[in-house]
Amino acid sequence: MADIGTKDLTISFFTDADLWPAKMRNALFCDALQQTIYIRQLMGASSIACKVKPVGCRTSIRNLIWRDCWLAIGDAARTIDPLSGGGVARAITDGIDAADAISIALTRSDFGPLRAFAVQRANSFFDNLEVQREYYSRESRWQVSEFWRRRTEPLSDPSESRTRMAYTKVST
Fold it and tell me: Other CB atoms closer than 10 Å to residue 71's CB: what's the count?
C-alpha cells in the first residue's frame, strides 16, 4: 500500500491474470480487501472504492538481447517477478555494466562487450529463476493456492521457465 500524495491509496495485489477474469477483477479485488485485517482498517470501511488497474509483472526474457550494435537492457531485456526482490539493484548494475559495454563498443568499435553483456544477463536470468523458486518455496501458508503452486512446483524439464518458453544457458 502506498500513499501517492493525494487522498487516494495504491494497493498492490499480485496474481496471475488468468486466475482473475477481466470482468470479475474489481469484485474479486474488493472481496480480497474485505478479507484483510490491517489494510481494511487503514482504509476505513466506507473508503473502499475498488478500481483495478492491471499491470504486467511476469518473469520473462527477450529471445534476443543483443544483435550487432543493438543491446536491450533492464526490463527491456528481462524481468523478474517483483515478489522475489532485487529489481532496483539489478537495474542499477545493468545500467552501469551496459554503459561500460557501450562505451567500449563506441570508442574501440569492439562489439564483443555487448555480446558478453547479453550472454551474462541471459545466464543470470536463469540463476534468478532458481533464486525465485527457492524464495517462493519458503511460503507455506497458501499451499492450496494455484498462484503459489505455480511458483513452487518442480519444473518438469530443466530448460522450462516460468514464461512457459524453452531457453537454455548461453556460453561465451
Answer: 21
